[in-house]
Amino acid sequence: MKIQDKKEPRYLFYFFFIIGILAILLFAEVSAFSVISFLFCLIVFIIGFYKIDKVTKQLKEINSSLESAKAELENKNRELIMHHEREKLENELIIANRELTFQNEEKEKRTNELLTANKELSAFTYIASHDLQEPLRKTQLFLSRILEDKEQLLSEKNLDYFKRMEISSRRMQLLINDLLSYSRVNESDKELTNVYLNDVIDNVLEELTLIQTIEEKNATITCGSLPQINGIPFQLEQLFTNLISNSIKYSYPDRPPVIDIQYTVVKGTEMPETNANPGKSYYKITITDNGIGFEQENAEKIFMLFQRLHDKQKYAGTGIGLTICKKITENHHGFITATSIPDQGSTFTVYLPSADAAVV
Predict the structure, then answer these.
(1) How far apart are CA 177 and CA 194, in angstroms?
(2) Contacts for 47 with CB less than 8 Å, ≥ 6 apart
(3) Is residue 291 within 8 Å of residue 345, measured between CB atoms?
(4) How far apart are CA 360 and CA 358, in angstroms?
């Protein structure tokens, strides 16, 4: 209806235009042939104009159809792309689920292996506690009696053999004790209680005084005020016993060991360890000595099991003590590091987390 309304005025214009031209021609007394020729040309022109108008309309309709088809094609393309992306995401999700399933299976497998290893470790602990130590104690007992009762009858060479056997049995005893300590650290109850670290240090120094370790080396040990933390008391005592004993052991014969224990509070973002919680604060406890030190390139190696940097003939030990220290700090969700300069001394730094420590 709208299209017809638009065309009616145009055709009326054509009609009145032709009437006007005819009237002019009649009044101008133009010949009939000229009028008929003019009318014929005018009719041809009108028909041509009408055809052009019709073709133009058809072209517009075709263009409109093409635009509609183009829009529909674009919608189809978008739907196809979305469908393709959906399929891609679905495939990625399927792959991710497969990987997650595989990882869960591997995790379960590793968990079972760990449980098996813990059972084996428990069995080893029992064997080391009973079956190994009993014959070792008897060997040490018989060696001691032979050296006490028959020392005068033994040749110098045989006496040297027996003394070497005694030293070896002591090393074996020390190794078994250290292995038991390491297994207990792994298996022990992880329930935390309030622990005053100054009380821990006092207990450690009292124990070292009883076995005359401090007096033998004429060691000087100073300790500032230390914090209260949530921890496992006997493990913390073992941690500081190992660290202080190491500082005393690895000292110069002609230079009395000087050991200083202090602490500060640091943010998690200031920690050297990448696994530190950036939202927590940590107690940074340093144990500094003036001992023989070591090359800094060995700072990580010393915490590995059975790793030794010095001659066992000169410095007794099994290479387990610092491994135990690392395990204890991990049990407390902390870290331990070491820095050293040969011939000048070492600093062992223990980081223990604190939920309510204020950073100063």
Answers:
(1) 28
(2) none
(3) yes
(4) 6
Give, to the nearest 10 degrees, the angle between helix 133-149 and helix 156-187. Answer: 150
pLDDT digits (tens, 9 = 90+) for 308-355: 665 555 555 567 788 888 988 988 888 999 998 988 899 999 999 886
pTM attached to this predicted model: 0.56
Q: Are 221 and 259 in contact (CB under 8 A)?
A: yes
Residue pLDDT, tens place only, 222-232: 999 999 998 88
Q: Which residues, at least 6 apart from 222, have a Cβ–Cβ distance to it below 8 Å?
A: 259, 260, 261
CA pair distance 13, 251, nearest whole angstrom = 121
- Average pLDDT, whole number, for the chain? 78
Distance of alpha carbon 133 from its chain centroid, rounded?
A: 41
**Terminal Cα-to-Cα distance of the chain (whole angstroms):** 87
The confidence band for 244, taking pLDDT boundaries of 50, 70 and 90, is very high
More confident residue, 6 or 43: 43
Q: Which residues contact 120 (CB under 8 A, 6 or more apart)?
A: none
- Count, residues in the chain: 360
For residue 5, what pLDDT is reported?
47
CA–CA separation, 250 and 233 (whole Å): 26
The token pair at 71 is: 């829009």
| Domains within the chain, CATH numbers bracketed | 192-354 (3.30.565.10)
- Tens digits of residue pLDDT in 130-150: 667 777 777 778 778 877 777
Three-point CA angle 122, 128, 133, nearest 5°: 155
Residue 294, both tokens: 């070591």
The residue ranges of DSSP E strands in the chain, in sequence order, are 193-196, 220-223, 228-231, 258-267, 281-288, 335-341, 345-354
CA–CA distances in Å: residue 43 to residues 6, 7, 54: 21, 18, 16
